[in-house]
Amino acid sequence: MRYLFVLALTASLFAAQPLSPAEEALLSPITANVLKGHISFLASDALDGRDTPSKGLDVAAEYIAAQFRRYGLEPAGDNGYFQSAAYVNVTQPAEGLEITLTSGGKTWKADKEHVMISSSGTAQIHAAGVVKVTITDENTPLPDRTAVEGKAVILIAPMPRSRAMLRKRESVLDLGPAIVVTGGFTGFGRTRLREAGETTAQRPPMITTSDPEFNTFVESLDAAATLEAAVPAPVLQPVTLKNIIATLPGSDPALKDTYILLTAHYDHIGISTRGEGDRLNNGANDDASGVATVLALAESFSKSTARPKRTLVFMTYFGEEKGLFGSRYYGSHPVFPLAKTIANLNFEHMGRTDDNEGDRSGKITASGFDYTTLGDALTEAGKATGIEAWKHAENSDAFFGRSDNQSLADSGVPAITVAVSWIFPDYHRPGDEWEKINYPNMEKEVRTCALAVERIANDSRPVKWNETNPKAEKYVEAWRKLHSAN
C-alpha cells in the first residue's frame, strides 16, 4: 500500500497542473507544426550545414531576421536586427606542409589529409630536439620554460571539452617551443576565426593530427628524437559575421530596463571534408531546434496581450561551433548593460528525445542545473505542463562550459543552456536531419520554457547564482564584480 502511495505522489508531482487563461493564451501559438516549419528550413540541404562563414549561414540569418520582422519586434543591432562583427577567416592550407619525426632509426611523417594547422606565419624547423609534454586536465602543471623553449613539443592531451582545457593546451605555446604537434580530431576543416582587431603576435605553429600511427609512434620516443618541419603561411580573408537581435520592451516602469536573454546558435559545421555518401551536416537538433525555440518564444510573447514586465531579448549567435564566437562577441560588445541583464536562457538540442542513454520524452534538463535559480524556474514550470525538469549527474555540469551560456556566465550573468538530450545519435554527423525531431514532445518542452520565462520576467526578485554550490563560486564572484562597478 505504501508503495502505491509513493507512486501516486511521484506521479502527482509531474502531472499537468491547471494553467490560467492568460498562460494558456501565451502558450497556444507554440505548436509542433510551427517548430517543424522553422527546423525543416534551417536544417535543409539548401543551407549547406550553415558553416561559419558561409552563404548558408547568411541565408539562415536573413530568415531569422524576417521572422522577427513578422512578429513586430524591435531591432537591436547596429544594422537593423544584425549586430555586425568584423572577423578574419584564417585558412591554413596543407599544401607545403612537411613534418618528419625521427626516433630510434624510425620515422613518422604527417599525412596532409589528416592534419589541422594553426600558425601565425611560415615556419622552417631543422633537426629540433623533441620533448614530450603530457596534460591530463586544466590543473596539470606545465614544465619550466627552459625545458621547452626552442624544442619540438609532442603534446599528449585530451581534446578540449571546455574553454579552460582549450586555454591549457594553448598555454604550451607561451613556453616558446619551435612547434607543437599533438593528436586529436581534425574533422572540422582547416579554417579558424579571429576578431579583426585582435592582436596577432607571432606564435609557434600547432599541428593536430588524427593519424593513429602518430599516437603509437610517440609512445616510445628516445632522448635523441628530432623533428623537421615546413609549415605554410595562413591565408587571411576579412569577413563580417552577424548576431541577430530583437527585443520586446517590458511593460513595467521599474523593471523594463532589466533584460532576459533568450538565445541559441544558428550555425553548424557545414559539409565534412571526408567520408563517403552524405557529407552534409544539417544540424537539425544542433542547433536548428534551439533557433526554432527562440523564434517560437518570440512569436508567443509578441502575440500575447499581457506584455512581460521585464524586457525580453531574442538573439541567435554565429560561430558557436568554431569556439562560442558569437556569444563571446556579444559578451564583450553587449547591446544591453550586462549588470542589467538578469538571466540568459540558451537553448540547444531541444528536439530529439533519443538520447544515447535512453528516451528523454517528457523531460527537460540544463547545463549548470543547480548553479542558479533558473533550474528551479524550469522545475516549477514543468509541474504545470507535465514536463519533468532534472539534472544529469555528469552532463549538466560538464556541458556548462561547452555552450554559449558560458560567455555570459563569465561576466557574472546567471546563464544556463536548456536541453532535452545531451548526446544523441548523429551528433555532429550528416544524419542530424529535421525528420528525426520529436515535434509533439518539443511543443511541450518549448511551452515549458515559455512559462518559465514569463514567470521570471514578471517576478520582481532577480535570478540568483547558487552561493552554496562550489562549482558556481567563480560566477558568484563575477556577478559581485559586475554589480560593484555599477
Please provide a brief summary of the model:
This protein is 30% helix and 23% strand.
List keywords for this structure.
486 residues; alpha/beta; Aminopeptidase; Glucose Oxidase, domain 1; 10-stranded mixed β-sheet; 14 helices; elongated
What report would you give on this structure?
The protein is an alpha/beta fold and about 475 residues long. It has two domains: about 20-85 and about 240-485, Aminopeptidase; about 95-235, Glucose Oxidase, domain 1 (3-Layer(bba) Sandwich), CATH 3.50.30. The protein has 14 helices and 20 strands. The strands form three sheets. Strands 1, 2, 9, 12, 13, 14, 15, 18, 19 and 20 form a ten-stranded mixed beta sheet that branches. The protein has an eight-stranded mixed beta sheet with strand order 4-3-11-6-7-8-10-5. Helix 8 links the parallel strand 13 (about 260-265) and strand 14 (about 310-315). Helix 3 (about 30-40) packs across helix 8 (about 285-305), helix 3 packs across helix 13 and helix 8 (about 285-305) packs across helix 13.
Topology:
Layout: H1 2-14, H2 21-27, H3 32-42, H4 55-71, E1 74-75, E2 82-91, E3 98-103, E4 106-109, E5 115-118, E6 123-134, H5 145-148, E7 152-156, H6 163-170, E8 179-183, E9 191-195, E10 206-209, H7 212-217, E11 226-231, E12 235-248, E13 259-265, H8 284-303, E14 311-317, H9 325-332, E15 341-347, E16 354-355, E17 358-359, E18 363-366, H10 374-385, E19 388-389, H11 395-398, H12 405-409, E20 415-419, H13 439-457, H14 473-484
Parallel strand pairs: 6-7, 7-8, 8-10, 13-14, 13-15, 15-20, 18-19
Antiparallel strand pairs: 1-12, 2-9, 2-12, 3-4, 3-11, 5-10, 6-11, 12-14, 16-17, 18-20
Helix pairs in contact: 3-8, 3-13, 4-8, 8-13, 10-13
